[in-house]
């Protein structure tokens, strides 16, 4: 009779076979799982965040910063310079707005309309936006300015894709 | 908007908002001054593209009008005038001709439709400085163009 502390031959075989079987199952399953979630992981990797400016330089007054991203335009891949209007709102939160006018795509400027010094102004058809990017009623744009995905890491502001508000 | 069918579709949806054609004037030669002539074409093309980017919703960037250095002034100006009147008749009252060719300074037919920018050899400058120079000039042209637009929208 086997001693209580000893592992019987049957138990030993059971353990090893379960172990080996487990490994084999894992070996088969893992690639499948990877295939399934791969597109999700890839998509995340495509929208890299780019360092734009040190956090300390961001003021309550919107400032224009530029940064470079890779852009695919059909079969043509190129490096393009993008711009963002960056400022801190009343609560001290950082806001990064796209400068592309939602009307027909001109580049908006901050405070260049003398009668509305605290708004974004589009030189093309007089489109205006309040500081938080909301389009002013009665001007051509029908939507607020896009907002960049943002992240602060090691004292630096990183920006990603611009998305509709 | 650029000279491509995608942007033309955009134009057709919003033509009442687009009234300005940007047309670079570019000299061509393969003679001994080609380096100089290329320089005179390079800079206005870069500027025109940048203007298009900033004023996308109201301008249409045309392919350049090119001419041989040896071509006679009258010939070239005749072509430019033909385009100008076509544009005027077709809802583009503010053509802007962008050039770095000093040949057109004071050409009366062009009048204030001409924007003459002295060529800058960008090739030996570092990128930062290049960008500064280009954005300086772009600002200058933007002012000229938006001034034409005053009180129109
Ligand atoms: S493109 Fe900005 S108002 Fe028309």
Task: Explain this structure.
The complex is a heterodimer of chains A (165) and B (153). With 165 residues, chain A is α+β, with helices and mostly antiparallel strands. Chain A folds into two domains: 1-43; 50-163, Rieske [2Fe-2S] iron-sulphur domain (Rieske Iron-sulfur Protein, 3-layer Sandwich). Helices cover 23% and strands 33% of the residues of chain A. Chain A is built from one helix and nine strands. Chain A has one helix at residues 9-46; strands at residues 50-54, 63-73, 76-88, 94-97, 109-110, 120-121, 128-129, 147-153, 156-163. In chain A, strand 3 and strand 4 form a beta hairpin. The longest helix of chain A has 38 residues, at 9-46. The model of chain A is unreliable at 42-46 (pLDDT under 50). With 153 residues, chain B is α/β, with parallel strands linked by helices. Chain B has one domain (5-147): 3-Layer(aba) Sandwich (Rossmann fold). Chain B is 46% helix and 15% strand. Chain B contains four helices and five strands. In chain B, strands 1, 2, 3, 4 and 5 form a five-stranded parallel β-sheet that branches. The radius of gyration of chain B is 16 Å and the shape is globular. The site of FE2/S2 (inorganic) cluster has 11 residues of chain A, from loops.
What's the arrangement of secondary structure elements?
The complex is a heterodimer of chains A (165) and B (153).
Chain A: H1 9-46, E1 50-54, E2 63-73, E3 76-88, E4 94-97, E5 109-110, E6 120-121, E7 128-129, E8 147-153, E9 156-163
Antiparallel strand pairs in A: 1-9, 2-3, 3-4, 5-6, 6-7, 8-9
Chain B: H1 5-13, E1 20-28, H2 34-54, E2 59-61, E3 65-68, H3 73-89, E4 96-99, E5 114-116, H4 127-149
Parallel strand pairs in B: 1-2, 1-3, 1-4, 4-5
Bound molecules: FE2/S2 (inorganic) cluster (FES).
